Fold:
Amino acid sequence: MSKHTAEFLPANEPDLKSILQGGYNHPLLREWQSERQLTKNMFIFPIFISDSPDEETKIDSLPNIKRYGINKIVSYLKPLVAKGLKSVIIFGVPMKDGCKDDVGSAADDPEGPVIQCIKLLRKELPELYLMVDVCLCEYTSHGHCGVLYEDGTLNRDLSVRRIAAVATNYAKAGAHSVAPSDMMDGRIKDIKLGLMNAGLAHKTFVMSYSAKFSGNLYGPFRDAACSAPSSGDRKCYQLPPAGRGLAVRALRRDMDEGADGIIIKPSTFYLDIMRDASEICRDLPICAYHVSGEYAMLHAAAEKNVVDLKTIAFEAHYGFLRAGARLIISYFTPEFLEWLN
Ligand SMILES: NCC(=O)CCC(=O)O
Ligand SMILES: [Zn+2]
Ligand SMILES: [Zn+2]
Structure:
Protein backbone atom coordinates (compact mmCIF):
# COMPACT_ATOMS: atom_id res chain seq x y z
CA MET A 1 0.00 0.00 0.00
CA SER A 2 1.41 3.39 -0.99
CA LYS A 3 1.92 6.13 1.52
CA HIS A 4 -0.52 8.16 -0.54
CA THR A 5 -3.62 5.93 -0.14
CA ALA A 6 -2.97 4.89 3.42
CA GLU A 7 -3.86 8.27 4.85
CA PHE A 8 -7.44 7.92 3.46
CA LEU A 9 -8.10 4.63 5.18
CA PRO A 10 -9.69 4.57 8.61
CA ALA A 11 -7.46 3.32 11.35
CA ASN A 12 -9.86 0.58 12.41
CA GLU A 13 -12.24 -1.73 10.61
CA PRO A 14 -14.80 0.63 8.94
CA ASP A 15 -18.41 0.45 10.16
CA LEU A 16 -20.27 1.01 6.90
CA LYS A 17 -23.62 1.57 8.61
CA SER A 18 -22.45 4.29 10.95
CA ILE A 19 -22.59 7.23 8.54
CA LEU A 20 -26.11 8.59 7.97
CA GLN A 21 -25.45 12.23 7.15
CA GLY A 22 -24.72 11.55 3.50
CA GLY A 23 -28.41 10.71 3.28
CA TYR A 24 -29.70 14.16 4.25
CA ASN A 25 -27.00 16.74 3.69
CA HIS A 26 -28.92 18.42 0.84
CA PRO A 27 -32.41 20.04 0.96
CA LEU A 28 -33.68 17.73 -1.77
CA LEU A 29 -32.47 14.70 0.16
CA ARG A 30 -34.34 15.88 3.24
CA GLU A 31 -37.52 15.85 1.18
CA TRP A 32 -36.68 12.40 -0.14
CA GLN A 33 -36.38 11.20 3.46
CA SER A 34 -39.99 12.01 4.29
CA GLU A 35 -42.29 9.17 3.40
CA ARG A 36 -45.01 11.71 2.65
CA GLN A 37 -45.19 15.48 2.21
CA LEU A 38 -47.86 17.82 3.52
CA THR A 39 -50.18 18.88 0.71
CA LYS A 40 -52.93 21.48 0.60
CA ASN A 41 -55.65 18.93 -0.02
CA MET A 42 -55.01 17.24 3.35
CA PHE A 43 -56.19 20.31 5.26
CA ILE A 44 -59.70 20.79 6.66
CA PHE A 45 -60.30 24.26 8.09
CA PRO A 46 -62.65 24.74 11.10
CA ILE A 47 -65.06 27.67 10.73
CA PHE A 48 -67.47 29.14 13.30
CA ILE A 49 -70.83 30.47 12.07
CA SER A 50 -73.08 32.42 14.40
CA ASP A 51 -76.70 33.46 14.09
CA SER A 52 -75.98 37.18 13.93
CA PRO A 53 -75.65 37.64 10.18
CA ASP A 54 -73.15 40.50 10.17
CA GLU A 55 -70.91 39.20 12.93
CA GLU A 56 -67.14 39.15 12.56
CA THR A 57 -65.69 38.70 16.03
CA LYS A 58 -62.13 37.98 17.10
CA ILE A 59 -61.71 35.20 19.65
CA ASP A 60 -59.07 36.31 22.12
CA SER A 61 -57.92 32.82 23.04
CA LEU A 62 -57.77 31.61 19.40
CA PRO A 63 -55.32 33.81 17.48
CA ASN A 64 -56.25 34.82 13.89
CA ILE A 65 -59.59 32.97 14.06
CA LYS A 66 -62.93 34.79 14.02
CA ARG A 67 -66.57 33.89 14.39
CA TYR A 68 -68.49 34.91 11.29
CA GLY A 69 -72.12 35.60 10.45
CA ILE A 70 -73.70 34.31 7.29
CA ASN A 71 -73.21 37.66 5.50
CA LYS A 72 -69.46 37.60 6.11
CA ILE A 73 -68.37 34.03 5.56
CA VAL A 74 -68.22 33.90 1.76
CA SER A 75 -65.95 36.92 1.42
CA TYR A 76 -63.68 35.44 4.09
CA LEU A 77 -63.42 32.02 2.44
CA LYS A 78 -63.25 33.04 -1.21
CA PRO A 79 -59.59 34.16 -1.18
CA LEU A 80 -58.66 31.01 0.75
CA VAL A 81 -60.34 28.85 -1.88
CA ALA A 82 -58.34 30.74 -4.52
CA LYS A 83 -55.18 29.79 -2.59
CA GLY A 84 -56.10 26.11 -2.59
CA LEU A 85 -58.48 25.57 0.33
CA LYS A 86 -60.37 22.35 -0.43
CA SER A 87 -62.43 21.68 2.65
CA VAL A 88 -63.95 23.22 5.79
CA ILE A 89 -65.60 21.78 8.89
CA ILE A 90 -68.53 23.92 10.02
CA PHE A 91 -69.41 24.67 13.66
CA GLY A 92 -72.65 26.50 14.42
CA VAL A 93 -72.80 29.06 17.21
CA PRO A 94 -76.35 30.11 18.09
CA MET A 95 -76.20 33.08 20.45
CA LYS A 96 -79.67 34.60 20.42
CA ASP A 97 -81.39 34.61 23.80
CA GLY A 98 -83.60 31.61 24.39
CA CYS A 99 -82.48 29.64 21.32
CA LYS A 100 -81.06 26.76 23.36
CA ASP A 101 -83.25 23.96 24.72
CA ASP A 102 -82.79 20.54 26.28
CA VAL A 103 -82.65 18.65 22.96
CA GLY A 104 -80.61 21.19 20.98
CA SER A 105 -83.34 22.12 18.49
CA ALA A 106 -81.20 24.96 17.13
CA ALA A 107 -78.70 22.44 15.72
CA ASP A 108 -80.82 21.69 12.66
CA ASP A 109 -83.20 24.65 12.67
CA PRO A 110 -83.78 25.35 8.95
CA GLU A 111 -83.35 29.05 9.72
CA GLY A 112 -80.37 28.42 12.02
CA PRO A 113 -76.73 29.20 11.20
CA VAL A 114 -75.57 25.71 10.21
CA ILE A 115 -78.26 24.83 7.66
CA GLN A 116 -78.11 28.37 6.27
CA CYS A 117 -74.33 28.20 5.97
CA ILE A 118 -74.39 24.82 4.22
CA LYS A 119 -76.85 26.09 1.63
CA LEU A 120 -74.98 29.34 1.11
CA LEU A 121 -71.55 27.75 0.66
CA ARG A 122 -72.86 25.04 -1.67
CA LYS A 123 -74.23 27.82 -3.86
CA GLU A 124 -71.46 30.42 -3.62
CA LEU A 125 -68.38 28.18 -3.36
CA PRO A 126 -69.48 24.99 -5.10
CA GLU A 127 -65.96 23.57 -5.34
CA LEU A 128 -65.50 23.63 -1.54
CA TYR A 129 -66.03 20.28 0.25
CA LEU A 130 -68.31 20.79 3.26
CA MET A 131 -67.87 18.72 6.38
CA VAL A 132 -70.21 19.58 9.24
CA ASP A 133 -69.53 18.85 12.89
CA VAL A 134 -72.50 17.07 14.47
CA CYS A 135 -73.01 17.60 18.19
CA LEU A 136 -75.59 19.03 20.52
CA CYS A 137 -73.38 20.90 23.02
CA GLU A 138 -73.46 24.22 21.13
CA TYR A 139 -77.28 24.05 21.04
CA THR A 140 -78.43 22.58 24.35
CA SER A 141 -79.37 24.67 27.38
CA HIS A 142 -77.23 22.42 29.59
CA GLY A 143 -74.27 22.45 27.20
CA HIS A 144 -73.83 18.67 27.12
CA CYS A 145 -73.32 16.76 23.88
CA GLY A 146 -76.45 14.61 24.18
CA VAL A 147 -79.93 14.52 25.67
CA LEU A 148 -80.10 14.04 29.44
CA TYR A 149 -82.33 12.13 31.86
CA GLU A 150 -83.83 14.23 34.65
CA ASP A 151 -81.00 13.19 36.96
CA GLY A 152 -78.49 14.73 34.55
CA THR A 153 -77.06 11.46 33.21
CA LEU A 154 -77.03 10.77 29.48
CA ASN A 155 -80.02 9.22 27.78
CA ARG A 156 -78.18 7.28 25.12
CA ASP A 157 -81.19 6.21 23.06
CA LEU A 158 -82.67 9.68 22.77
CA SER A 159 -79.23 11.24 22.21
CA VAL A 160 -78.35 8.92 19.37
CA ARG A 161 -81.74 9.34 17.72
CA ARG A 162 -81.47 13.11 17.92
CA ILE A 163 -77.88 13.14 16.63
CA ALA A 164 -78.78 10.88 13.70
CA ALA A 165 -81.66 13.22 12.81
CA VAL A 166 -79.38 16.28 12.93
CA ALA A 167 -76.74 14.58 10.76
CA THR A 168 -79.37 13.55 8.23
CA ASN A 169 -80.77 17.08 8.10
CA TYR A 170 -77.29 18.46 7.41
CA ALA A 171 -76.87 16.00 4.56
CA LYS A 172 -80.30 16.95 3.22
CA ALA A 173 -79.24 20.60 3.25
CA GLY A 174 -76.20 19.72 1.14
CA ALA A 175 -73.37 18.75 3.50
CA HIS A 176 -70.91 16.43 1.76
CA SER A 177 -69.78 14.95 5.05
CA VAL A 178 -71.05 14.73 8.62
CA ALA A 179 -68.64 14.42 11.54
CA PRO A 180 -70.25 13.36 14.83
CA SER A 181 -68.16 14.62 17.75
CA ASP A 182 -70.62 13.79 20.55
CA MET A 183 -69.04 10.45 21.59
CA MET A 184 -72.41 8.79 22.27
CA ASP A 185 -72.24 5.00 21.99
CA GLY A 186 -73.61 3.63 18.75
CA ARG A 187 -74.29 6.85 16.88
CA ILE A 188 -72.41 5.91 13.72
CA LYS A 189 -74.83 3.07 13.04
CA ASP A 190 -77.88 5.28 13.56
CA ILE A 191 -76.45 8.05 11.40
CA LYS A 192 -75.78 5.57 8.59
CA LEU A 193 -79.33 4.23 8.91
CA GLY A 194 -80.75 7.77 8.87
CA LEU A 195 -78.75 8.59 5.74
CA MET A 196 -79.86 5.35 4.07
CA ASN A 197 -83.52 6.07 4.84
CA ALA A 198 -83.12 9.54 3.35
CA GLY A 199 -81.45 8.16 0.21
CA LEU A 200 -78.24 10.05 1.03
CA ALA A 201 -75.89 7.35 2.30
CA HIS A 202 -74.21 6.88 -1.08
CA LYS A 203 -73.06 10.50 -1.19
CA THR A 204 -72.36 11.36 2.43
CA PHE A 205 -69.01 10.68 4.08
CA VAL A 206 -69.38 9.81 7.77
CA MET A 207 -66.25 11.04 9.52
CA SER A 208 -66.32 9.73 13.07
CA TYR A 209 -64.59 11.41 15.96
CA SER A 210 -63.85 7.90 17.24
CA ALA A 211 -61.14 8.71 19.69
CA LYS A 212 -61.94 12.06 21.27
CA PHE A 213 -60.26 12.47 24.63
CA SER A 214 -61.52 14.65 27.45
CA GLY A 215 -58.91 17.02 28.77
CA ASN A 216 -57.66 20.54 28.96
CA LEU A 217 -57.09 21.37 25.30
CA TYR A 218 -60.53 22.56 24.15
CA GLY A 219 -60.74 25.87 26.06
CA PRO A 220 -60.36 28.33 23.15
CA PHE A 221 -62.88 26.34 21.10
CA ARG A 222 -65.42 26.68 23.90
CA ASP A 223 -64.85 30.44 23.85
CA ALA A 224 -65.40 30.48 20.09
CA ALA A 225 -68.44 28.19 20.10
CA CYS A 226 -69.88 29.25 23.48
CA SER A 227 -70.27 25.58 24.34
CA ALA A 228 -68.89 25.02 27.83
CA PRO A 229 -71.21 22.71 29.83
CA SER A 230 -73.26 24.66 32.41
CA SER A 231 -72.65 21.95 34.99
CA GLY A 232 -70.49 18.86 35.25
CA ASP A 233 -67.97 17.82 32.61
CA ARG A 234 -67.77 15.45 29.64
CA LYS A 235 -65.77 12.69 31.30
CA CYS A 236 -68.60 10.14 31.07
CA TYR A 237 -68.57 10.22 27.27
CA GLN A 238 -65.24 11.60 26.06
CA LEU A 239 -62.36 9.18 26.61
CA PRO A 240 -60.04 9.35 29.63
CA PRO A 241 -56.57 10.54 28.50
CA ALA A 242 -54.81 7.39 29.69
CA GLY A 243 -57.38 5.04 28.14
CA ARG A 244 -55.60 3.57 25.15
CA GLY A 245 -57.60 0.35 25.36
CA LEU A 246 -60.90 2.21 25.28
CA ALA A 247 -59.72 4.12 22.23
CA VAL A 248 -58.89 0.87 20.47
CA ARG A 249 -62.36 -0.48 21.25
CA ALA A 250 -63.99 2.75 20.02
CA LEU A 251 -61.99 2.59 16.78
CA ARG A 252 -63.06 -1.00 16.14
CA ARG A 253 -66.68 -0.27 16.99
CA ASP A 254 -66.98 2.79 14.76
CA MET A 255 -65.33 0.97 11.89
CA ASP A 256 -67.76 -1.95 12.33
CA GLU A 257 -70.70 0.47 12.39
CA GLY A 258 -69.66 1.80 8.99
CA ALA A 259 -67.59 4.94 9.61
CA ASP A 260 -65.93 6.16 6.41
CA GLY A 261 -63.12 8.03 8.17
CA ILE A 262 -61.71 8.34 11.68
CA ILE A 263 -60.68 11.41 13.67
CA ILE A 264 -58.14 11.33 16.50
CA LYS A 265 -58.50 14.33 18.79
CA PRO A 266 -56.45 16.03 20.21
CA SER A 267 -53.46 15.27 18.04
CA THR A 268 -49.93 15.94 19.30
CA PHE A 269 -50.57 14.37 22.70
CA TYR A 270 -52.17 11.27 21.13
CA LEU A 271 -49.81 10.23 18.33
CA ASP A 272 -49.73 6.67 19.68
CA ILE A 273 -53.51 6.46 19.22
CA MET A 274 -53.12 7.83 15.69
CA ARG A 275 -50.64 5.06 14.98
CA ASP A 276 -53.04 2.51 16.53
CA ALA A 277 -55.82 3.86 14.30
CA SER A 278 -53.70 3.65 11.16
CA GLU A 279 -53.09 -0.01 11.92
CA ILE A 280 -56.54 -1.01 13.26
CA CYS A 281 -58.49 1.03 10.68
CA ARG A 282 -55.92 0.65 7.94
CA ASP A 283 -58.49 0.78 5.14
CA LEU A 284 -59.91 4.12 6.31
CA PRO A 285 -58.42 7.61 6.07
CA ILE A 286 -57.25 8.77 9.49
CA CYS A 287 -57.63 12.43 10.38
CA ALA A 288 -55.71 14.33 13.07
CA TYR A 289 -57.55 17.19 14.80
CA HIS A 290 -55.00 19.75 15.94
CA VAL A 291 -57.33 21.31 18.50
CA SER A 292 -57.70 24.85 19.72
CA GLY A 293 -55.58 24.43 22.86
CA GLU A 294 -52.68 22.91 20.93
CA TYR A 295 -52.88 25.73 18.39
CA ALA A 296 -53.07 28.43 21.06
CA MET A 297 -50.10 26.95 22.95
CA LEU A 298 -47.89 27.11 19.86
CA HIS A 299 -48.91 30.72 19.29
CA ALA A 300 -48.21 31.58 22.93
CA ALA A 301 -44.79 29.96 22.78
CA ALA A 302 -43.98 31.78 19.52
CA GLU A 303 -44.98 35.12 21.05
CA LYS A 304 -42.52 34.49 23.85
CA ASN A 305 -39.84 33.60 21.25
CA VAL A 306 -39.64 30.10 22.66
CA VAL A 307 -40.34 28.65 19.19
CA ASP A 308 -40.63 29.84 15.61
CA LEU A 309 -44.28 29.50 14.64
CA LYS A 310 -43.83 28.21 11.09
CA THR A 311 -41.11 25.74 12.04
CA ILE A 312 -43.05 24.34 14.99
CA ALA A 313 -46.27 24.11 12.95
CA PHE A 314 -44.50 22.03 10.28
CA GLU A 315 -42.92 19.87 12.97
CA ALA A 316 -46.28 19.18 14.63
CA HIS A 317 -48.07 18.45 11.37
CA TYR A 318 -45.28 16.18 10.07
CA GLY A 319 -45.78 14.21 13.27
CA PHE A 320 -49.37 13.45 12.24
CA LEU A 321 -48.25 12.15 8.86
CA ARG A 322 -45.58 10.00 10.50
CA ALA A 323 -48.14 8.57 12.92
CA GLY A 324 -50.36 7.57 9.98
CA ALA A 325 -52.82 10.45 9.48
CA ARG A 326 -53.80 11.35 5.94
CA LEU A 327 -56.01 14.35 6.78
CA ILE A 328 -55.58 17.21 9.24
CA ILE A 329 -58.19 19.48 10.77
CA SER A 330 -56.14 22.55 11.59
CA TYR A 331 -56.57 26.20 12.53
CA PHE A 332 -53.21 26.68 10.75
CA THR A 333 -54.85 25.89 7.40
CA PRO A 334 -54.71 29.49 6.08
CA GLU A 335 -51.01 29.67 6.95
CA PHE A 336 -50.26 26.32 5.32
CA LEU A 337 -51.98 27.49 2.13
CA GLU A 338 -49.24 30.14 2.01
CA TRP A 339 -46.40 27.99 3.32
CA LEU A 340 -47.04 25.12 0.90
CA ASN A 341 -46.65 27.27 -2.22
N1 LIG B 1 -66.01 19.23 18.47
C1 LIG B 1 -64.95 20.17 18.51
C2 LIG B 1 -64.43 20.35 19.88
O1 LIG B 1 -65.01 19.82 20.79
C3 LIG B 1 -63.19 21.15 20.20
C4 LIG B 1 -62.16 21.28 19.17
C5 LIG B 1 -61.07 22.28 19.49
O2 LIG B 1 -60.72 22.49 20.66
O3 LIG B 1 -60.53 22.85 18.55
ZN1 LIG C 1 -70.27 18.35 21.95
ZN1 LIG D 1 -67.34 19.21 20.27
The beta strands are 43-50, 56-58, 66-68, 87-93, 129-134, 177-180, 205-212, 261-265, 286-290, 327-330. The pocket of zinc ion (ligand 2) is lined by residues 135, 137, 145, 181-182 (CB under 6 Å). The two ends are 54 Å apart (CA to CA). DSSP finds twelve helices and ten strands in the chain.
